[in-house]
Amino acid sequence: MAQYSVLITSPPFHGDNTLRALQFIGGVIDSGSTIDNVFFYGDGVYHTNNLMLEAGGECFSFGEWKKLSEAHNVKLLVCITAAVKRGIVSEQEAINNGIASANLTAPFIQAGLGEFFTELHNCTRLVQF
């Protein structure tokens, strides 16, 4: 069975990439293969903003990623540099910078590119959306 890492670089509000990524991941899991991690990079970090609200009839990417993580124990890694540049901060960063609240919370985990590259050694395939 194959082990996949998924790289998300497109924002959640741009086309149907979110739905295609989620459908692909569902198919991988249904086939018996595994998704080791999803890494959000560049504008893909917008998926992890917990201040995004569900809009009627649209894919609620934050909620869908959270459900995926909880149901299948998939690690959701977020590039810390890309996130901070886009105003997505963890609790520790909020405290350190005097920001009222964090908008990056579990199940999303901050990670650097080095950690992502280390994770790639455990998988057999990388797919980008």
From TrEMBL:
NCBIfam families per record: PRK00207.1, sulf_tusD_dsrE
Superkingdom of origin organism: Bacteria
Any one GO cellular component localisation term in the record: sulfurtransferase complex
Record GO terms (molecular function): sulfur carrier activity; sulfurtransferase activity
Subcellular location: Cytoplasm
Key words, A-Z: Cytoplasm, Transferase
Gene name of the encoded protein: tusD
Protein name from the UniProt record: Sulfurtransferase complex subunit TusD
Family label: Belongs to the DsrE/TusD family.
